[in-house]
């Protein structure tokens, strides 16, 4: 049995506790509107203003009792109940997430699935809490660049690594060493776990930080928001070795000029190289 409740974020914790107290086996949250949540600050766990909370119960639960309990917190008209037939949940998950190809040889393949091209460059990655599984246009733009670029034997910095997908892909296509940095401790944990599961942990270091830190790399790639890229332009530009490449994503079409100008002040001439669904990839070489 599935019980869905529409509520505001102020009452989300109370509704979740009530559902669990009534015997819910699991509670999930989703956006009731269309409010993106990207790049939270360290220690922050942001929540949408309007939330749909879904409690999954055993089929013999007294639905009227759950409804009555919820009516103490929310409008009864915001509660819906429906029966959910038994199914193989692992298969349902696999039906939603499929292997994805980026460029000619690079694939993102969830664990437990066969790679369509076993001899290709394969990143094993499951959808998780940290941003970046290949499904978003900005991630796609970066993965396609990594597939086409000459990364072999080079040092790479992935700033704002999220799940680690870009840094791990860089290692798999031949990078000598990859340094991943994110301000979110959850992303750091996800990246370390994913690197281990892909067998490249010995060539990838991950740390928590608000800036790119010390040191330089042959390739610096960053898929974060345009405002953060502009603010960190001095540090990101300095982290690129002379002659090295800078690849930026997370930038909308109408934000590109501002980001290009910010990095131009620090010796890197960026240009729009590709765009997908209103998002652009910026590329440049440090003189």
From TrEMBL:
Its EC number is 2.1.1.-. One of its GO terms (cellular component) is ribosome. The keyword Ribonucleoprotein applies. Its main location: cytoplasm. Keywords: Cytoplasm, Methyltransferase, Ribonucleoprotein, Ribosomal protein, S-adenosyl-L-methionine, Transferase. It catalyses: L-lysyl-[protein] + 3 S-adenosyl-L-methionine = N(6),N(6),N(6)-trimethyl-L-lysyl-[protein] + 3 S-adenosyl-L-homocysteine + 3 H(+). GO terms for biological process: methylation. It comes from the Bacteria. One of its GO terms (molecular function) is protein-lysine N-methyltransferase activity. Transmembrane segments: none annotated. It is found in: Cytoplasm. S-adenosyl-L-methionine binds at residues 139, 160, 182, 223. Belongs to the methyltransferase superfamily. PrmA family. HAMAP family: Methyltr_PrmA (MF_00735). Methylates ribosomal protein L11. This is Ribosomal protein L11 methyltransferase. It comes from Marinihelvus fidelis. The lineage of its organism: Bacteria, Pseudomonadati, Pseudomonadota, Gammaproteobacteria, Chromatiales.
């Amino acid at each position: 049995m599935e019980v869905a409740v529409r509520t505001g974020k102020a009452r989300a914790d109370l509704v979740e506790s009530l559902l669990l107290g009534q015997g819910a086996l699991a509670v999930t949250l989703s956006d009731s509107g269309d409010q993106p949540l990207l790049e939270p600050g360290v220690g922050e766990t942001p929540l949408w203003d309007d939330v749909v909370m879904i409690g999954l119960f055993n089929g013999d639960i007294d639905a009227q009792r759950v409804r009555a309990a919820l009516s103490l917190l929310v409008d009864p008209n915001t509660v819906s109940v429906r029966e959910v037939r038994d199914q193989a949940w692992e298969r349902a998950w696999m039906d939603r997430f499929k292997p994805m190809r980026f460029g000619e040889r690079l694939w993102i393949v969830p664990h437990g699935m066969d790679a369509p091209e076993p001899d290709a460059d394969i990143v094993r990655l499951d959808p998780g809490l940290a941003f970046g599984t290949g499904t978003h246009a900005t991630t796609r733009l970066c993965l396609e660049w990594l597939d086409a670029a000459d990364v072999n034997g080079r040092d790479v910095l992935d700033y704002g690594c999220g799940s680690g997908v870009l840094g791990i892909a860089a290692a798999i296509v031949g990078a000598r060493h990859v340094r991943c940095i994110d301000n979110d401790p959850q992303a750091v944990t996800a990246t370390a776990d994913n690197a281990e599961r892909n067998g490249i942990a010995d060539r990838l270091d991950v740390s928590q930080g608000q800036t790119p830190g010390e040191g330089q790399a042959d390739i610096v790639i960053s898929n974060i928001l345009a405002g953060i890229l502009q603010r960190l332009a001095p540090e990101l530009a300095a982290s690129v070795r002379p002659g090295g490449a800078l690849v930026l994503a997370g930038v909308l079409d109408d934000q590109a000029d501002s980001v290009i100008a910010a990095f131009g002040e620090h010796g890197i001439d960026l240009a729009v190289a590709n765009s997908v669904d209103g998002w652009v990839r910026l590329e440049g070489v440090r003189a």
